[in-house]
C-alpha cells in the first residue's frame, strides 16, 4: 500500500544528501559554525543558519530513509 498525500510533503533540498554513514558528523560540524556567530556581521548569520538547517534536514531524513 502506497501513502498518498493530498498535499506536498516537505523533504530535504534536492541534492543535499551526504554520503556520510553517520549523519551526526555533519551536524556537529555545522553547529560548530555557530560558535563564533556573535563575532560575524549580521548579514552572514543567515548563511550559517541555513547550513545548520540543511544538515539537520538531511540527518532527520536519513533516519527513516525518506
Show the helix and strand layout.
Elements (H helix, E strand, L loop, with lengths): L22 H10 L12 H19 L3
User: Structural class of the secondary elements?
Assistant: mainly alpha
Helix content: 40-55%
Q: Which residues sit in consecutive blocks of at least 5 with pLDDT less than 50?
A: none
What percentage of the residues does DSSP assign to strands (E)?
Answer: under 5%
What is the approximate shape? flat
What is the string of helix and strand elements?
HH
Description:
There is one protein chain. This protein has helices at 23-32, 45-63. It has a domain at 40-65. By secondary structure, the chain is an all-alpha fold. It contains two helices and no strands. The longest helix has 19 residues, at 45-63.
List keywords for this structure.
single chain; 66 residues; mainly alpha; 2 helices; flat
Briefly summarize what is shown.
By secondary structure, the chain is mainly α. About 45% of the residues lie in helices and about 0% in strands.
